[in-house]
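Ticket #473: bound-state structure for adenosine-5'-triphosphate.
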Amino acid sequence: MLRKLPGDEVRTLVSTTPDTAVVFRPAVMQTPAVITILVMVGRFITGLIRTIVAHPIATTALVAPSVIWIRYGWPVAVAAVTVPCSMLVGWAVAGRESFARWVGWRLLAFWRRLWVYRRHWQPVMIITGLGRHIRGRDYLPRLVRVTCDGWADRITVKMLAGQAVKDWADRADHLAHGFGAPACRVAIARAGRLVLTFPRRDPLASPLSAVPIPETASVGPVEIGRCEDGTTYKLKVHGTHVLIAGATGSGKGSWLWSTIRGLLPAMRAGLVQIWALDPKRMELSFGRPLFGSHYAADPKECADLLDEAVKVMQERAGRFAGLQRSHVPTTADPFILVIVDEVAFLTAYQADKQLRQRITAALATLTTQGRTVGIGVMAALQDPRKEVMTIRNLFPDKIALRLDESEQVDMVLGDGARDRGALADHISPVPELGAGVGYVRLETSPDPVRVRAAYVSDADIRAMVAEFAGVGR
Ligand SMILES: Nc1ncnc2c1ncn2[C@@H]1O[C@H](COP(=O)(O)OP(=O)(O)OP(=O)(O)O)[C@@H](O)[C@H]1O
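RESOLUTION: The complex was predicted; output attached.
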């Protein structure tokens, strides 16, 4: 411990003038070891007092049995430990959730603060460059608070003066590895303070089976799957447009089908119509009887269907003008969701230039003016480059499933999304692990949310068709 003392660096400081060989060495005063030891003991005692003041309950729980033993003998001390412990075990068995909320997660947070974060804080901060070691002194960001839940540790950090969120976001990978976590998300708590989220396990690592069809007719938000904190995820479709980008086999189909599944009762009630454009003929054709006449696969038919949607939009806009500013779905004016699978087939890979321009113009019109009159677009595509999808920025809500390159993440979700933890290029290509997993960035929140869509199997689609065929007349 005493091999290197604070101040030893000074010994190695050397300065020279640029044009002479003169070397200046500072005079070094040796501090007697006893003074150094006293300083260290003083620091240890201060740290101990600080810990006692910061954690009075934990300290009492540790110290009280020894005090009882000394004053009243060991049988009383053993009773004083076993009675509360068995009560806690009883509570943990009888009321798992309340025990976890009031005791379990707090104990885990206390332990992980000491054992993981405090222990590794100094080396991780220095090596990542977020802290500085200058002339024997450490200048480190302050670890303010650690909280745990069933999924992740959340750490509140006070940044060093002059640091920016980007400094931390750029080092999210380093922080994750430094503290032994699979990932790290950086979010702003308030000026000067950040919350770092370190997941401890991945609740999305195994596929989810299809969400039951809702009992009641609702236009959304539609339950799609689960977030990584274990809560159910509901996607808003009415009043927005959604772009889903992902490499081949990333599970775009499960997002499209989970949405359709959640809207079936509303379709039956006449409050929703789904208009399906399926240029690949591989995805939506499977549930064709659900869409009635609002299904197109041939590019020319797709363009006609889109033009029809534009006409409905313009007719509604004329009728609603001056009367209402937002759409309320009714059987007379249902919410129309235009679902386009592999939109690039129509906007980029379409050989007929005129048709391509017509389709792009119709999609641009719908995405800029459709949402207030009850027309939404949900489009899926594999390649998110601007040349392929010139109108990608017209979609307020975006979802990035597995992508091949890290640059594609910001192309889909917008600037800074990957820095904020949307590691869509790290999603596993193994379908059981990664298909259907994606990062959602909503227009209302800059922080991407990691979600897995439930898998709607062929058998589920067949059952949906058997029960709901004809709802899309
Ligand atoms: N949510 C999911 N959970 C688990 N597995 C899934 C999920 N979604 C899809 N899969 C699996 O991944 C495979 C590919 O899915 P899917 O065809 O939907 O991908 P895609 O992105 O539409 O691909 P492409 O663009 O090539 O059509 C499916 O056959 C299925 O086995």
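RESOLUTION NOTES: The chain has a mean pLDDT of 89.
TICKET STATUS: resolved
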